[in-house]
Amino acid sequence: MIAVDTNVLVRLVTNDDPVQSRSAARLFAEQNIFVSRTVLLEVEWVLRVAYELPRPAIHQAFERLLSVPSVTVEDAAGVARALTWFSDGMDFADALHVAGSADAIDGFYTFDKALARRARKLGTAPVVELV
Length: 131
Fold this sequence. Notes:
Layout: E1 2-3, H1 6-14, H2 18-30, E2 33-35, H3 37-50, H4 55-67, E3 71-73, H5 76-87, H6 92-100, E4 108-110, H7 113-122, E5 128-130
Parallel strand pairs: 1-2, 2-3, 4-5
Helix pairs in contact: 1-2, 1-3, 4-5, 5-6
């Protein structure tokens, strides 16, 4: 198994560089791939900010990635939970932080009122509380 960097996933999703995109696709076709949560965090930011992709397109790209048999995503269950919250309007980074800590904590505390409000509306577990 090999791990990939953010730029490899971005090439795969955007197909914006023909040579690198083909290389990325070949890598995914020939190897078992590990994708860390931090790489997903960066990919979402790059796709949203640099490429201005809409939330549904980013969500769909991540869902496809999770469904590839040769791809192992770090904390796949937590990432899947974060993607559900992301599709329901939560910021991806916030969703990933809350979902990734779910099994280890009793509550998630923040100063971010919007995060707490969205989390309460979505019924996240763990519960997000304001400090």
